[in-house]
Amino acid sequence: QEQGYGMDALATLFFLFGLSSVMVGLVFFTLGHLKLGRVAYFFPAHVLVGCIGGIGAFIIVTAIEVTNNQDFSFDMDGIISLVENFHLFGLVVLFEVTLRVLSAVLVDQNGNPSFRFLAPIFFCSIVPVFYLGLFILGISSNQAREWGYLFPDPSCPIPNAECKSVSFHDKVYNGHVLDVFKVIDFRVISWTAVAKSTGTLLALCSFSLIHVPINIPAFAVSSNVDVDMNNELV
């Protein structure tokens, strides 16, 4: 409504992204510095559970869509699409089941995990295990990409087309990767749009604060360390 869809709109959007991060940091620092960290516990439990549950549901739907390379909906068409592309989604299920089995088996006599770093080590090993499986089965990366297991190659966006070979350095590093920092131009930012977004920014600060009474106590329990909410906020 303010400026359309050009570079000026993009500049305003990126400015709002940065401003929201700064506002959240200032709110956290102020609460911690004034010893008001316990205010985070005044959020009702059903609000916390609802927000976190909503995030979880959104992540699940997004993960299914990214895995199957198709939109997903909770209806018959969505179920059919999931079944037709189960060779993609099934790989994710296999990794998840493997982690659950290892977590259930690798416990001590008291039922506590024998290896506290099992989950992070497992997640870090997914990529090398995946490529090791491709190597053992004799499947090339191009063939895996055609089947939907890998994202399209930016250097060759057209499938089955003859594209020039690109070095590993050029695939990893793009000379335009830092162009995002050139997007913000204070001369074209719509300050009217920024003012109208104040309510959204305040809501984002409150939403970020919701995670504090969940993540920090959970970290304290998992690490068996007493934490000070005020220090964590600062």
Shape: globular
What's the count of strands? 0
Low-confidence stretches: none
Query: What radius of gyration results from the CA coordinates?
Result: 23 Å
Find the structural class using helix and strand composition.
mainly alpha
End-to-end separation in angstroms reads 38 Å
Main sheet specs: none
Order of helices and strands: HHHHHHHHHHH
Please identify the oligomeric state: single chain
Percent helix, as a range, is 55-70%
Topology of helices and strands:
Blueprint: H1 7-33, H2 45-68, H3 76-84, H4 86-105, H5 118-137, H6 141-146, H7 168-172, H8 191-196, H9 198-210, H10 212-223, H11 229-233
Helix pairs in contact: 1-9, 4-5
Question: What can you tell me about this protein's structure?
Answer:
The protein is mostly helical and 234 residues long. The protein has eleven helices and no strands. It has helices at 7-33, 45-68, 76-84, 86-105, 118-137, 141-146, 168-172, 191-196, 198-210, 212-223, 229-233. Helix 1 packs across helix 9 (198-210) and helix 4 (86-105) packs across helix 5. The longest helix has 27 residues, at 7-33. The chain is globular, with a radius of gyration of 23 Å. 5% of the residues are buried. The model has no long low-confidence stretch (mean pLDDT 81).
